[in-house]
């Protein structure tokens, strides 16, 4: 379970913004993720009206699914383009407002109020800004975080979770010496030490 040369790899925010500008977004799933459908019951656990967090959200269509089921969705994403594409591709009217606690931070909220997407780095967030969550859908998030930032990311995620919350995490398994990532390979042992 050695992650090899991926340990040192860093993808900058600028590089992510460029991926969006160039349309290099092979990670985006137009049809949504089958694993969310499969494990939806685990996430919801019979509860309704949950607050669900989408770290590093891109324009994930699953945000629309969960909002349509009556949940409150909060996402965070550095690319403003991604967030605008999300709202326009689902024909959702939204408004934009500054986030006073975050320099340069903006929040895009559907006019219906149930989808709030923060345009900033996830590391700018805290529970005093976004509150705590009953559920997390982590797909393309932990595996997209630079390996050197994983501990910081996991501690932040833990600080954003309510006591009785559920966290669905999607990872990928492959030989980390054959691909540079992202998505990065995160060994099971590391997931255990990050989240306990
Ligand atoms: N979860 C989404 C997107 C995965 S790709 C999906 O399933 O489709 C990872 C995304 O994280 C990219 O859109 C990138 O722009 C964004 N990102 C990278 N670093 C970030 C950071 N520090 N804070 C917020 N978003 C970030």
TrEMBL record:
The keyword Methyltransferase applies. The lineage of its organism: Eukaryota, Metazoa, Chordata, Craniata, Vertebrata. It is found in: Cytoplasm. Its EC number is 2.1.1.67. Belongs to the class I-like SAM-binding methyltransferase superfamily. TPMT family. It catalyses: S-adenosyl-L-methionine + a thiopurine = S-adenosyl-L-homocysteine + a thiopurine S-methylether. GO terms for molecular function: thiopurine S-methyltransferase activity. Keywords: Cytoplasm, Methyltransferase, S-adenosyl-L-methionine, Transferase. This is thiopurine S-methyltransferase. One of its GO terms (cellular component) is cytoplasm. InterPro entries: SAM-dependent_MTases_sf, Thiopurine_S-MeTrfase, TPMT. Signal peptide: none annotated. GO terms for biological process: methylation. It comes from Tyrannus savana. PROSITE patterns: SAM_MT_TPMT. Its main location: cytoplasm. S-adenosyl-L-methionine binds at residues 16-27, 56, 77, 121-122, 139.
């Amino acid at each position: 379970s050695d992650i090899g040369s991926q340990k040192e790899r860093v993808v900058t925010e600028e590089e992510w913004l460029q991926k969006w500008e160039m349309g290099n977004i092979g990670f985006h799933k137009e049809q949504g993720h089958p694993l969310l459908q499969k494990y939806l019951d685990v996430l919801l656990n019979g509860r309704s009206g949950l607050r669900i967090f989408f770290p590093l959200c891109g324009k994930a269509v699953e945000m629309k699914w969960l909002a349509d089921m009556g949940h409150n969705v909060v996402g965070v994403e550095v690319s403003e383009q991604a967030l605008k594409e999300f709202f326009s591709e689902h024909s959702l009217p939204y408004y934009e407002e500054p986030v006073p606690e975050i320099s340069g931070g903006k929040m895009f909220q559907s006019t219906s109020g149930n989808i709030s997407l923060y345009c900033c780095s996830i590391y700018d967030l805290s529970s005093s800004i976004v509150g705590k969550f009953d559920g997390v859908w982590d797909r393309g998030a932990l595996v997209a975080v630079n390996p050197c930032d994983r501990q910081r990311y996991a501690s932040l995620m833990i600080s954003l979770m309510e006591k009785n919350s559920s966290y669905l995490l999607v990872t990928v398994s492959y030989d980390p010496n054959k691909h540079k990532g992202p998505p990065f390979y995160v060994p099971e042992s590391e997931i255990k030490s990050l989240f306990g």
